[in-house]
Design brief:
Layout: E1 4-7, H1 17-25, H2 29-37, E2 41-43, E3 46-47, E4 60-63, E5 83-84, E6 87-91, E7 95-100, H3 110-114, H4 118-121, H5 128-140, E8 148-149, E9 158-164, H6 167-178, E10 183-191, E11 197-204, E12 213-214, E13 222-234, E14 237-244, H7 251-258, E15 289-297, E16 304-308, H8 313-325
Parallel strand pairs: 9-15
Antiparallel strand pairs: 1-4, 1-5, 2-3, 2-4, 6-7, 7-9, 8-9, 10-14, 10-15, 11-12, 11-13, 13-14, 15-16
Amino acid sequence: MKPGNYYVRKQDAGIQLLAWLKVSLKLDGGSCNQLIAAGCIFIDKKQVRDPKLQLKGGARVFLKPSPKPLKTNKKKAEARVVIAMPEIIYFDDDIAIVEKPSGLTTVHHAQDKKEFSERDRKFLPSTLQDILPDILSVHTKKKVPFVRAVHRLDKETSGVLVFSLNKKAESSLGKQMREKKFTRRYIALVRGQIENQEIRSILVRDRGDGRRGSSLKDPDGELAVTHVKKIESLGDISVVECELETGRTHQVRIHLGESNAPLCGEKIYDRPINGRPKPDPSGIDRIALHACYLSLEHPTSGKVMSWKSSIPHDMQGVIERFREKNKAPE
């Protein structure tokens, strides 16, 4: 578990701090007590030193770097997943702009829920839409009863999303999405080189090998348009910006993969039909795609608003490594 912000899930409410740290950080009790005693644990911005403190669902846990190295408890392999804390960039009575961390699902698809009974749905992993009401209530100091995702990011994709906080806003933002009034841009790390271009294709559920992809034959496919701009060439990888004209499932991932420049970290759309994956020199352990810019009309005021998000540390680390690798000798 790295230093930073983390979130206590509803189902973990009532667990004592020491027990939560042991399970979440995969550390032994002595190391967890060391963190607590050293003042490394903050809950909702308050430093805590009581290992028996009972945690509340929705609490923000901030972990400072430990002054001493800690040993991982390998026996805790079954430890539950700790969700990195989403960041609230902006909110008002109508919308919330959130920066989603990689590894957190935006919202369960309706089809996913249909595959489980009502009882079993309770055990599905929490999504950003599930946990957001609790996080927003900390900011607003009141209950937030209505939160709906207007669009989605893939689980491994990080970046900016908008959520509606009432039905009127949901309707307005949904209409804007359909009328293509949103501006959405992504920063991506891709394998190899790619030139500036507009990629336009018809996307289908099965391109011929069980994967989504482009087809010229399927009349039931959906038009997808992505504008690609090269930002930086770094030898074996490139940094590109992708602006969506349409918002189809896995659109950026598919279009880059079919252009022989699959995303770094991509494990599905990284090969031609029945072909081998293109080698990935990045070493990144997730899809290197980040939603860096979002613009829309506010559902009440009508004012055009926009938000930016910086490249996350894991992607920036890959960029710095390849810059150093490709630096000309002095």
